[in-house]
# Entry
Amino acid sequence: MIIANWKMNKGLVQSQQFVEELKAYVEKHKVVNADIVICPPFTSLEAVSRKIAGTAIKLGAQNMFYQTAGPFTGEISGGMLKSCGCEFVILGHSERRQHFGETNLTVNKKVLKALDEGLKPIICIGENLQEHDDKLTEPVIEEQLAVALTHVSEVDIANVTVAYEPIWAIGTGKNATPHQAEGVHNFLRKKLKKMYSDEISKNARIVYGGSINPENAKELFASPSVNGGLVGGASLEVESFVKIINSTHLI
Ligand code: PGA
# Structure
């Protein structure tokens, strides 16, 4: 699974151009063994949805609120995302935690609401540089995972993707090594086994995010424990994004 997180980039015209080019590539190369999810800004969701209709490309949003409707100026509900054609929604991205005060608890509320609305959450977790240096990665992400998944049933967990995104690797050009990513993913699987079952842990979709680029993608995706990537900066250009998609089926 390769997810493009465009963050606050691309207006309507740029979004449509990107998808036109990507669509041509996906059709030409018959990309079927990777789930490709584009997460544009809200303002481009509907236009992108129209462009990708009937293709293998899927649509996701970058955030949503946990209420159904009402006096929440500036917020977007899960139902609204569904009505725009979204199948996925990124939740708890570290930039939302850092700039918009999101906590593990609000992430959990959003996860439950997204599942309730029939959306598939992509839950972002990851430690910051200080926590990384202090060797606190495991307790930090264990807490993030456990709280985010509170009350998520054994049935619903099949629709959840976990994205391990070490904050020190996001937008820094300093990716986790394949070995580090594999170690953390294995740790998360152990936790999922404890929380759910062996089978759920084995089938869980856990992707890595943080400075993925065409040069490091193949190595990062090589471990069977890493089920794909959440790509920020390198998803903004079709050429680099396509190279990253290619890294999945060159293995
Ligand atoms: P990056 O962002 O690829 O630019 O590091 C990843 C993310 O924030 O999802």
Q: What stands out?
A: The chain has one domain: 2-246. The two ends are 14 Å apart (CA to CA). The beta strands are 2-5, 36-39, 57-61, 88-91, 120-125, 161-164, 205-209, 229-231.
